[in-house]
């Protein structure tokens, strides 16, 4: 059986969520996955971005490193992992816009049975990591994804993260994820790959 395909579709502005995405990719690859990392694009114009110092420059640098996610990426994948910073306790409009673009695949049932997982970051302690991750479970259910939480299936979860997905807090300083945060993210990448592989095996037997 060919290696599982994992799409990590995320939005990151300062690089904190990107760091978690890279750790998830590392764990997925260690578990034998082929990985695509994609950064969702801004949905506001340059005049809005100019109001936040460094936003435009950071976006340009990140966009140079990652292609934008497409519906074709989601169709290609056996597992889709969504990542987002928290915006007022919920998902960023940038990532949500990508999820909303998957309506055509949803209508055709082409995402049914794929593994789905989420991760996120916030600037402040108790700033909404858990509410944001849980809010993403709703569209994943509508898309037909089989939700894969981190649970407490690894010792790293007793030090960091949430049972819903990897997370970090940057304390309004764009502080990078801790080693414990990254350990949870690597475990999440491994776990979602293993589940995607098992689901593919079930599908092959049923075919």
Report the end-to-end length measured between terminal Cα atoms: 14 Å
User: How much of the sequence is in beta strands?
Assistant: 15-25%
Pairing-aware structural class of the strands and helices? alpha/beta
Question: How many strand units?
Answer: 6
The CATH homologous superfamily: Flavodoxin domain
Corresponding CATH architecture: 3-Layer(aba) Sandwich
What is the makeup of the main sheet? 6 strands, parallel
| H/E topology pattern | EHEHHHEHHEHEEH
CATH C-level class:
Alpha Beta
Named CATH topology: Rossmann fold
Mean pLDDT level: 96
- Low-pLDDT parts are none
Radius of gyration: 16 Å
Number of domain units: 1
Q: What is the overall number of helices?
A: 8
Helix content: 40-55%
Principal-axis shape equals globular
Any overview of this molecule?
The protein is α/β, with parallel strands linked by helices and 207 residues long. The protein has one domain (5-206): Rossmann fold (3-Layer(aba) Sandwich), CATH 3.40.50.360. Helices cover 45% and strands 15% of the residues. The protein has eight helices and six strands, in the order βαβαααβααβαββα. β4, α7 and β5 form a beta-alpha-beta unit. α1 packs across α8 (179-206). It is globular. The model has no long low-confidence stretch (mean pLDDT 96).
Outline the fold blueprint.
Layout: E1 5-10, H1 16-30, E2 34-39, H2 46-49, H3 55-65, H4 71-76, E3 79-85, H5 93-100, H6 103-108, E4 115-122, H7 129-143, E5 146-147, E6 167-169, H8 179-206
Parallel strand pairs: 1-2, 1-3, 3-4, 4-5, 4-6
């Amino acid at each position: 059986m060919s290696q599982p395909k994992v799409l990590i579709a995320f939005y990151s502005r300062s690089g904190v969520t990107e760091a978690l995405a890279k750790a998830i990719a590392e764990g997925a690859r260690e578990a034998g996955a082929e990985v695509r990392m994609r950064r969702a694009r801004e949905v506001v114009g340059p005049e809005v971005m100019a109001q936040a110092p460094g936003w435009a420059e950071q976006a340009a640098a990140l966009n140079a490193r990652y292609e934008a996610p497409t519906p074709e990426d989601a169709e290609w994948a056996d597992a889709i992992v969504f990542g987002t910073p928290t915006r007022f306790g919920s998902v960023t409009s940038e990532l949500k816009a990508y999820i909303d673009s998957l309506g055509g695949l949803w209508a055709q049932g082409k995402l049914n049975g794929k593994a789905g997982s989420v991760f996120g970051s916030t600037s402040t302690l108790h700033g909404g990591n858990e509410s944001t991750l849980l809010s993403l479970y709703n569209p994943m259910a509508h898309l037909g994804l089989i939700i894969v939480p981190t649970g407490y299936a690894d010792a790293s979860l007793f030090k960091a993260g949430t049972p819903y997905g990897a997370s970090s807090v940057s304390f309004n300083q764009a502080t990078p994820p801790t080693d414990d945060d990254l350990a949870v993210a690597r475990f999440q990448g491994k776990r979602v790959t293993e589940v995607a592989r098992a689901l593919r095996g079930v599908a092959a037997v049923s075919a």
